[in-house]
């Protein structure tokens, strides 16, 4: 795989270690060696990011940088895996997931996430580990240092975990349980968040009709002619810009004025987005669980 280039500021954003500190560690301990462009601008490769993430984990757990500098790569990796298995430290687990994505290592992913689930439970693992991890994935996209294969690799592994958790909630629901219709707007393909809300609903005894990715508006209308649902739920990630969302929400509101519609996603919290009366904005999973208690 062709190595991507990271600036020292990229390393700071992803590891939490100040650029100034990284430079000192380079000079004093030679922990990584930056490459230089023809114009003498330093840059780093995937292997450098991985090493800085691992060093960050060790350093936060009391290892002195002078001692880390004496370790070879295998020893550093071994110590990091020990920490992720014996501590409930969120940052180290998140860093390990970034490494698993960069290296496309299913073994590292499975070890890290299974440990997190055992220690935290599935819901807390998603909110405290996977959500922050996906934010780092977003940073990697913004700085153009992740390729589609890496993103598909990691999101499909996460998707499998969430689906298994949903299947584990396959307990009989009450006959009078309220029904949610879950869908993503047309051209919206990022369904991990929607799947997690599916899990929350089933865990709390609600019925779910899950339509998934990229549902055309006309198809949504036809489904609602056939099926009885009490609520709609959708998630905005990347398919629409901020200017398009109000029009879409207005169309939803007018077409299904007799239903309460729940919406979530970073975009719906931007300034200038006013919600129709039957549309409810959901900040996060914790707020949604509180809302469910009132339905």
The geometry reads as: elongated
Q: Distance between the terminal alpha carbons, to the nearest Å? A: 50 Å
Number of domains: 2
Low-pLDDT residue intervals, each spanning 5 or more residues = none
Write down the CATH class of the largest domain.
Mainly Alpha
Percentage of residues in helical conformation: 55-70%
What is the topology, as strand order, of the major beta sheet? 4-3-5-6-7
Strand content: 5-15%
CATH topology of the largest domain: Multidrug-efflux Transporter Regulator, Chain: A, Domain 2
- Count of DSSP E strands? 7
Global Rg: 22 Å
Structural class: alpha/beta
**What's the story with the biggest beta sheet?**
5 strands, parallel
What is the average per-residue confidence, as pLDDT, rounded to a whole number? 87
Short description:
The protein has 295 residues and is an alpha/beta fold. 56% of the residues lie in helices and 12% in strands.
Provide tags for this entry.
about 300 residues, alpha/beta, Multidrug-efflux Transporter Regulator, Chain: A, Domain 2, Rossmann fold, 5-stranded parallel beta sheet, two-stranded antiparallel ribbon, elongated
Describe the protein's architecture and organization.
By secondary structure, the chain is α/β, with parallel strands linked by helices. It has two domains: 8-166, Multidrug-efflux Transporter Regulator, Chain: A, Domain 2 (Orthogonal Bundle); 172-292, Cobalamin-binding domain (Rossmann fold), CATH 3.40.50.280. Helices cover 56% and strands 12% of the residues. The protein has helices at 8-15, 19-29, 46-60, 65-68, 73-86, 90-103, 106-120, 122-142, 148-167, 192-203, 217-226, 244-255, 285-292, and strands spanning 35-36, 42-43, 179-185, 207-215, 231-235, 260-264, 279-282. Strands 4-3-5-6-7 form a five-stranded parallel beta sheet, sandwiched between helices. A two-stranded antiparallel ribbon has the order 1-2. A hairpin with a 5-residue loop joins strand 1 (35-36) and strand 2. Helix 3 (46-60) packs antiparallel against helix 6 and helix 7 (106-120) crosses helix 8 (122-142). It is elongated, with a radius of gyration of 22 Å. The N and C termini lie far apart (50 Å). The mean pLDDT is 87.
């Amino acid at each position: 795989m062709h190595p991507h280039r990271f600036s020292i500021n990229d390393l700071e954003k992803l590891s939490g270690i100040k650029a100034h500190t990284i430079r000192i560690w380079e000079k004093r301990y030679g922990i990584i060696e930056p490459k230089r462009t023809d114009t003498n601008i330093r840059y780093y490769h995937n292997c450098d990011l991985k090493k800085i993430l691992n060093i960050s984990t060790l350093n936060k757990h009391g290892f002195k940088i002078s001692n880390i500098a004496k370790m070879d790569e295998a020893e550093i990796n071994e110590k990091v895996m020990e920490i992720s298995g014996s501590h409930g430290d969120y940052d180290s687990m998140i860093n390990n997931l970034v490494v698993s994505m960069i290296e496309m290592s299913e073994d590292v992913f499975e070890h890290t996430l299974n440990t997190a689930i055992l220690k935290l439970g599935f819901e807390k693992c998603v909110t405290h580990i996977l959500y922050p991890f996906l934010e780092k994935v977003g940073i990697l996209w913004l700085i153009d240092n992740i390729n589609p294969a890496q993103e598909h690799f990691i999101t499909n592994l996460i998707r499998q975990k969430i689906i298994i958790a949903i299947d584990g909630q396959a307990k009989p629901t009450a006959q009078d349980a309220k029904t949610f219709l879950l869908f993503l707007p047309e051209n919206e393909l990022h369904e991990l968040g929607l799947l997690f809300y599916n899990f929350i609903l089933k865990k709390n005894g609600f019925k779910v009709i899950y339509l998934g990715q990229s549902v055309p508006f006309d198809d949504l209308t036809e489904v609602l002619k056939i099926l009885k649902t009490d609520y709609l739920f959708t998630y905005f990630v990347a398919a629409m810009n901020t200017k398009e969302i109000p029009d879409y929400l207005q169309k939803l509101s007018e077409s299904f004025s007799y239903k309460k519609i729940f919406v979530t996603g970073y975009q719906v919290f931007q300034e200038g987005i006013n919600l129709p009366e039957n549309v409810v904005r959901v900040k996060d999973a914790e707020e949604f669980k509180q809302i469910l208690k009132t339905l």
